[in-house]
Amino acid sequence: MTWSHWQEYALAVEINGMTSTPVIDVERLNVRYGDFHAVQDLSFQVRRGEFYALLGTNGAGKTSTMETLEGHRAPTSGTVRVLGWSPRDRSAVRPKMGIMLQESGFSPDLTVRESIRLIGKLTQRTDRVERVLSIVDLTRKAATRVSRLSGGEKRRLDFATTVYGAPELIFLDEPTTGLDIQSRDALWDAVDKLREDGSTIVLTTHYLEEAQQRADRIGLLHKGAFHQEGTVAELTRALPAVIRFALPPSAPALPLRGRRESEGRFLIETHHLQHDLFTLLRWAQEHAVELRELEAGPTRLDDVFRAIDN
Ligand SMILES: Nc1ncnc2c1ncn2[C@@H]1O[C@H](COP(=O)(O)OP(=O)(O)OP(=O)(O)O)[C@@H](O)[C@H]1O
Q: What Pfam families does the annotation carry (predicted)?
């Protein structure tokens, strides 16, 4: 082997090593608050470039887990490695990690531009302030004090500081709360671009649709442990697809077994969506019945959540 072949080989090993080393590696994480066991023996990994959603019922332990990954909380026991380091090792991980918390902690007297610069200094990330301002459409507010921003604008500033320097690992905690639809779309477009450039995303949200559309994998927490973990398809596989619609009171009996959800609204659960939908549409045609608010589709994450036994 020539010297240049050796160099190529060494680089390939390094790249393979990088891709196979998880960005987040959690092993038997436990978080206790006094007698209360909030996170119980939780183990999972997030791969480089992955979009991982940590979801769960209220009080399931998402925040406790996220805070541990972000380095804000020490585990009671277990090991947590982020980008190969303990997340408590702030100087090692902070330059490579962007964190969007549920609540921002900006100083009200600073301007938008000053706030971004300050975060840049604190995290030792470098970027162009104008670049991130344009991503969140706050260019015109660069000289405005934080105290004068609306709730949605503060949230966008939060996102701007999170993605400043295009960090390798980005934590998004309920990122779209309080955002209008245009701002939400802009945020997800920016996340898509970051992913194209190789960033790893960890999301937690109660907007299940957002996770369903984007997450490569989902960790579904319930009472401090994983109820399920996998792709959306894996999580929804066991549950039937659903057809929902509303009927006028005069409609004849349904051709399929359905469930009344509320007055005039019905739900049919099926493992043969195409076949049963066809039967229903043919019946509606034959009886001149209008199926109002008709929805048919694969199982939604909402249904997976509803199926969790409390
Ligand atoms: N500082 C604390 N002291 C005592 N108990 C706590 C503390 N923080 C959280 N808990 C409890 O630990 C459990 C998990 O809380 P956590 O905030 O991690 O859940 P979560 O999944 O983020 O919930 P939610 O969706 O409701 O925000 C809850 O029952 C909560 O009451």
A: ABC_tran
Q: Is the CB of 58 under 6 A from ligand 1?
A: yes
Give 32-78 pLDDT, tens digit per residue: 999 999 999 999 999 999 999 999 999 999 999 999 999 999 999 99
Torsion on CA atoms 63, 67, 70, 72, rounded to nearest 10: 160
Ligand 1 pocket check for 125: Cβ under 6 Å: no
Give yes or no for a contact between 146 and 157, defined as CB atoms under 8 angstroms apart: yes
* Distance, first Cα to last Cα, the chain: 62
On whether ipTM exceeds 0.90, the answer is yes
Contact 72 CB / ligand 1 (< 6 Å): no
List pLDDT tens digits, range 90-118: 889 999 999 999 887 888 999 999 999 99
Domain membership of residue 58 (yes or no) is: yes
Note whether 291 and 146 are same-domain residues: no
In angstroms, the CA 269 to CA 275 distance is 12
Alpha carbons 256 and 274: distance in angstroms, whole number: 13
Q: Say which CATH number the domain at 215 has.
A: 3.40.50.300
Same domain? 91 vs 174:
yes
* Burial status of residue 229 (CB atoms within 10 A of its CB: 0-12, 13-18, 19 or more): middle
Question: Residue 168 burial (CB < 10 Å; 0-12/13-18/19+)?
Answer: buried
Work out the average pLDDT over 197-214.
94
Mean pLDDT of 145-151: 94
Q: Where is the domain boundary, 200, 235, 270?
A: 235
Can you give the pTM of this predicted structure? Answer: 0.84
